[in-house]
Amino acid sequence: MKFSSARGGLLALGLALAPMHASAADAPKSVYVTLGTNSGPIPNPRRAEPSNFLQYGGQNILVDAGDAASWQLVKAGVDISKVQTVIISHLHFDHTSGLYAFLSLRYQALVTDPVTIYGPPGTKRVVDALIAGMAPNDETPSALWSWMKTAPEKIYTVVEIGDGAKFSVGEVKVTAAENSHYGFAPGSEEAKKYVSLSYRFDMPDRSIVFTGDTGPSAAVEKLAANADLLVSEIMDPDIALARIEAKRYVPFFVEGSIKTHFSKEHLSPTEVGLLASRAHVKALVLTHDALPDEAIPQAGKEIAANYKGPVTFAKDLDRF
Predict the structure, then answer these.
(1) Largest CB tally within 10 Å, which of 5, 187, 211, 281?
(2) Hey, where are the domains in the chain?
(3) Tens digit of pLDDT for each residue in 180-224?
(4) Which H helix or E strand runs over 104?
């Protein structure tokens, strides 16, 4: 296995460091940026909430929009007025809280270029509510230029999608698969209402799969089959629960159900390795990561027990 950590260089695993990037002659035309790599919702001073950016052939795609997504786009050298597409994996706050800033900053700057927002059931309700939240600003005396603005509903188009959806963004072919992040019984009313999606992006130069938040899932394994790059979440349930207990973010009597959620509806290092191995992906990038630096060597070993390809623990603004 080839293993590297963007947060701390080569770690003491006795393994060879392998760069994730090809030579200039062979470098892919597509660019994938891990804008925010934190595992929400607990704020992290070093990392923003989950968001990603994909660029290919003039198409600029924001994949999830956690808090600070707009700031991170600017830091990555991306003009938010040039983002034509937003793709949301699921509607948990840590993946959507940056949408308000994205929509409102464009509106305030008089940007009228259209944006299409794809996401699971409920996405339109979220976007409509955020647009409604902009209205009070235009009613203030300082908003004298409001008459120059184009109504947001004329700029933003929301397309709600589900398992098996396929659509194209320019030359980027997108396939969605429902994953196991919510864990409701198949066919139940909850399962119909709450959907978490993973995405595959097939481009002329390579294929990239983004798991979003998920637990072990045969559907995600199938989606990721033979992908050039798998961008996966990772979580250590015990470490994550210890952080919550230390900060007392939730009452103690719900901690058991939270640990069950972490264990079954997220991916441990072992499960990440199994996913990458079973899907035969060429390289693995880890995000949505709350592991402290000292826990990375052990997590790397657990991944390596099943997956022998190159692994990178991403940090904010890494490019692949």
Answers:
(1) 211
(2) 3-319
(3) 888 777 888 887 789 999 999 999 999 999 999 999 999 999 999
(4) helix 99-108
Sheet holding 85-87, edge to edge: 156-160, 115-119, 85-87, 59-65, 51-56, 31-36, 318-319
SS3 percent helix, strand, coil of the chain, rounded to 5, is: 30, 25, 45
Query: Which DSSP letter does residue 48 get?
Result: P
Strand partners, 54: 32, 61
Cβ atoms within 10 Å, residue 162? 13
DSSP codes, 266-277: S--HHHHHHHHH
Fold of 3-319: Metallo-beta-lactamase; Chain A (3.60.15)
Which of 163, 184, 57, 183 lies closest to 120 in space, CA to CA? 163
Cα end-to-end distance, the chain, whole Å: 19
Q: Which residues of 70-102 are buried (b: 16+ CB within 10 A; e: fewer)?
A: bbbbeebebebeebbbbbbbbbbebbbbbbbbb
